[in-house]
Design brief:
A hairpin with a 2-residue loop joins β6 and β7. Helices cover about 40% and strands about 35% of the residues. The protein is α+β, with helices and mostly antiparallel strands and about 170 residues long.
């Protein structure tokens, strides 16, 4: 019994020492790990954007934007979440009830940067009509993103035209 207790105490001490030794880690390694986590989180914005337009989920779409975000499409700019919400519901083709489009993006056309709490996200949107099996609309989206209260959000989105090229 005493041997078992001694081994248990030694085991706990070894685990505690290993944890302490790892806490002083390599700052460069920690920076790389943080940047990879930021890239992943920013990439999730793109994934959820395409999910929101494919499923016409306005609440999911709005969860991607910062409170004072802007959305610019040729000829108009929506400022703040309420104007952006109204744009998606009333003016965007993907959210129109008769359009059953699927939103996709070529993975190799996604570009992400992250520097501290700021970053950028670029992707193309290819809207596909599954009934006609055709690409009906293709656009680019250039965004500024920021970590706000621990979450990456879109602060500015500019939509432009794209060409279907590799």
């Amino acid at each position: 019994m005493r041997t078992l207790l001694t081994r248990g105490v030694v085991g706990v001490l070894l685990v505690a020492l290993a944890a302490c030794a790892g806490s002083s880690g390599n700052p460069a390694s920690e920076e790389v790990t943080q940047q990879q986590a930021d890239y992943w989180a920013i990439s999730r914005l793109q994934q959820r954007f395409h999910e929101a337009t494919s499923t016409k989920d306005i609440d999911l779409m709005m969860s991607l934007y910062a409170p004072n975000a802007t959305l610019t499409i040729p000829g108009q700019t929506a400022v703040g979440k309420e104007e952006i919400r109204q744009f998606w519901l009333t003016k965007s083709d993907p959210f129109q009830p008769d359009n059953r489009w699927i939103s996709e993006t070529p993975a190799y056309k996604i570009k992400i940067t992250a520097f501290g709490d700021k970053g950028t996200l670029h992707f193309e949107c290819h809207y596909v009509d599954p009934d006609g099996k055709t690409v009906v609309v293709y656009l680019t989206a250039d965004q500024e993103v920021a970590r706000i209260d621990g979450r990456w959000l879109i602060t500015d989105m500019v939509v432009g035209s794209a060409s279907l090229t590799p």
